[in-house]
Structure formats: structure tokens, C-alpha cells
Amino acid sequence: MTGMDVSRASAVMTIGALAPLLLLTGCAKHADFVELRDQLSTVSRSQDQDHQRVDAVLRRLESVERVKDAESGKARFEELSARLQKIESRLVKLEESAGQPSAKLDAAPPEPRPAKPAKPAQPPEAGTIVPGVPGITPTSAFNLAYNDYLNGKYELAVSGFQRFIKDFPGTSLAPNAQYWLGESYYNLKDYVRAIQAFEYLVAEYPGNEKVPAALYKLGLAAAETGDLVKSRKNLKRVLEEFPTSDESKLAKNKLAEIR
């Protein structure tokens, strides 16, 4: 029997017990009896509602307990699974480490003899243009010779510029190579060949930007050989033909020295 049934039975018994008393005493009217019955019915309904609330709370508590038990069991299961996986991994590692020494002994190949290192090829000397080297550009060839000039290796610079003029005569760097060939000879104090190189530049490339410098160096080289007439002639050409050039002032000062 549920709590609701108990309440109803209690209310009925209460009414049944009070009714004879009221009739025997004769002090109760019919309206009083009806009012009392209604009050008892209200009390019974209130008790029924209270019992329903209690039952609902109990059912919720039972469901919460079941959920907690299920979650706890799941967490425990996951923990045990993780521990089992760790143990299996350790066993696999132990088996592998136990089998490695014998495997190495059985499968170890004979040690190869170290190969004798090949003798490295000697690189070409700086500034030397190797004949037949594919892919070398005019700029690279010029820079090789010019770097030798800057480093004071004038003989190597002469060879490099001569080779450049021979291999790349029609390029835009050919006049520059001709000029620095003359400068290389000048620094070697080979003034005759320096004069020849500068004269060739002036004759073959009259509109080139290196012509004023070539004329000025012609004047210096001629003065070194003692040919002052030729020296003054070239220095005057600088003043007359290239008055705004950087070499014009230098040529004027040199002319003042040799007069």
C-alpha cells in the first residue's frame, strides 16, 4: 500500500469515527457534519500531494545514485585499461631488448674498409681564365682579372685582360679591359706597352668614357719614357677635348710640372 492509499484510509477512518459521536451527542447539525467532511477531504488531498512530492524526490535521488555508480564504474574501467596498456608496452620493449644482441651478432655485416680519400684538384690560380670552361660569362672573366689588379697582382691582371680581349672582343666591357690592361702595364713600369694599350683604346673607342683617363695616362707614360713632346700633346688633348672631366685638372697640374 502506497503513502497515498494510507492517507485516504486514515481520512475515511477519521470520518467514520467522528460521525457516530456527532450523531450520539446530538450537538452537531448536518451542515457541521458536511463542513467537517470537506475539511478532512482537503487535509487528505494535501497529504496526498505531500506524498507525491516525497516520492518524486526519492525517485530523483535513486536516478542520481545510479548515474554516479555508472560514471564511477566507467572511470575505473578506463583507469584499468590504461594500466593494462602500459604493462603491455613494457613487455614489448623487454622482448625487443632481449632479442637485439643476438640479432646484431647474426646480421652484422663485415666492416667496410675506409676508402682512400681522393686527392683534391688544385683550383686554378686567381685571375686565370681557364680555356674551354663552359658557362663563364664576360662579367665573370672581367672580374677575375680586375680583382687581380686590385690585389696588386699586375702580371696576372695582364694575362686576364689579354685573355678577355681575345675571348670577348665585342662586349661592352672590352674598352674597360683595354684600359685596365694599360694600367696594369703602367704599374709594372712597362711604359712602352702601357702607351700601346692606351693608344689602342683612344683609336678604337673614341667615344668611350675611359678616353679622358687614357689620354691622361698616355701623358704620364710618355713623360716616364722621356718623350715630353708626346706627353704634353696628350695632356693638352685632355684639356681641350674633355675640359669638364675629372682628368682635366690633373692634366693641367702635370703640364705645369713638365714645362
Automatic annotation (TrEMBL):
TPR repeat start-end pairs: 175-208
Signal sequence coordinates: none
One family name in Pfam for this protein: TPR_6
SMART domains, sorted: TPR
Keywords for the protein's UniProt record, in alphabetical order: Coiled coil, TPR repeat
Annotated GO biological process: cell division
Coiled coil start-end: 70-97
Top-level division of the source organism's lineage: Bacteria
Region (Disordered): 97-129
Pro residues compositional bias, start-end: 109-123
InterPro entries attached to this UniProt entry: CpoB, CpoB_C, TPR-like_helical_dom_sf, TPR_rpt
Name of the protein described by the UniProt record: Putative Tol-Pal system protein YbgF
Organism from which the protein derives: Nitrospira moscoviensis
Species classification: Bacteria, Pseudomonadati, Nitrospirota, Nitrospiria, Nitrospirales
